[in-house]
Amino acid sequence: MANNVIGVFDSASVADEVISDLTRSGFDSGVIHRYEGNSSDLESELQRSGLSSGEASEYAGSVHQDGALVVVQADDARTDEAVEIMNRYYTSSGDTTSEYASGYETQATGTANTGDARLDVVEEQLQIGKREVQRGGVRVRRVVSERDVEEQVTLRDETIRIDRHPVDRTVSGSSDLFTEQTIELTETDEEAVVAKEAHVVEEVVVGKDVQERTETVRDTVRRADVEIEQLGTAYGETLAGDERYAGREWHEVEGEARTNWERDNQGKGTWEEAQGSVKGAWDKLRGKR
């Protein structure tokens, strides 16, 4: 937390010495601010540095015409060090007042050799943020299944037939019958040729209307389907209906439920993703919603 350590000095030269001492002690020059007492806009400048309107008015009125005011922004660990440095010049010169604003709702004053040192406290305002917490989810995935199909087809088979018949006839005027001769015939059969063609039979669009069309396919085909799974809902309903958990509260069964989920649902999401849905289904069936 940053605190404002404020020193009001009657001499501008003393203020310069304070700034030099602060710088040598490791305070960054960017957190040290010096304001002249003869500045007509001193009050406005103090407000721009983070002081309230009342504080700025009070401090501006306490600086003499030839004096100066030094403001150091220091964290909790170095606030006392900054006060000590300013008080060195306060106790030695006798013409300086050092003041200190911290983060508590108390106000303290201290006394030195020639005057009082006032400790002003600045209260931090609480800032509340938001964070998102997972309470479950929905998984949409495509799975592949198979089914057998049958179709009738007519095929033709050829078979060569050889018939031999006894005959008795006279060969007349030709000697070609004693020349070698070969006759070849080929049997041709038909066999089924199967081809597969993928057809889109359904379109599933998450969050939108779905249009479908159906076609006839042949032989064994695969189907890419869509399953919508509410993570943990069925499991939570099963737990709520299990007699082993009758009369028990959720916090009493949560550890065992998580162990069983992680054992039986590998690859179906983590327990952190499903926990909200599981407990929601449990509470609903137990009448807590």
UniProtKB/TrEMBL annotation:
Residues 119-228 form the DUF2382 domain. Residues 262-289 are annotated as: Disordered. Pfam families: DUF2382. InterPro entries: DUF2382 (IPR019060), Stress_Response_Assoc (IPR052967). This is DUF2382 domain-containing protein.
